[in-house]
Amino acid sequence: MAGDLLDNQGRGEAGWQWPSIHPEGRKFGAIAGALAAVFFLFGVGIIGWPLAGLTAGILAFFRDPERVVPQDDRAIISPADGQVSMITQVDPPAELIGEDGTGAPGLIPGQVTRISIFMSVFDVHINRAPISGSVRRLVYIPGRFLNADLDKASDENERQHILIERSDGLLIGFTQIAGLVARRIIPFVKPGDMVASGQRVGLIRFGSRVDVYLPAGTSAKVMLGQRTIAGETVLAELGEQKLLEGVSQ
After folding, report:
1. Membrane-spanning regions, if any (predicted)?
2. Among 64, 111, 141, 164, fewest CB within 10 Å belongs to which?
């Protein structure tokens, strides 16, 4: 299915398939699986069974399913699976504003809409590019490991800012934030790389959050509490500002 073109008129072929396991998780799964096998071999099932369950959990955490990415220049795609935990007006991080010393532009100062997506340990943790373009910045900042659902986690937790510039000059910044359990943010890209919308750009191990900063004049197309799917859910359409209301049921 990878690379296939599908549309809303029924073109293409789709079918369920087992998601692959990202290489970053295979080593952890192999270690847990080997330990489980050793305890089973010596007849210590009371330890072997929990380790077997841990192995399954690790492999599930690092699952990397294929996604059908909308091909629309107006669309800003969700970089993360999870729940929309906050939608608020904020100033973008200082690391994403203005020039960075190389002459490359950054985000313009001033308040914009920030969409925060919280990822639990049950969500897919592969993060994807919200637009196509060139990676202009990748800034890692060490920090604390507060609950990623807290607003102050954006400023105090370990995090990594990414800025992507589209060919027409549009800039989108987003931030990977470590949480209580997360202990490592792993990038798949570096400054200068070209990425496609929905392309895998990194992962955060074991529970975390992603903040997306929308361009001025653009509001969220998702609602507070809504579930998002990385590479598929449209977070916003450029230049569109519209009130959306939902009912929890």
Report:
1. 28-61
2. 111
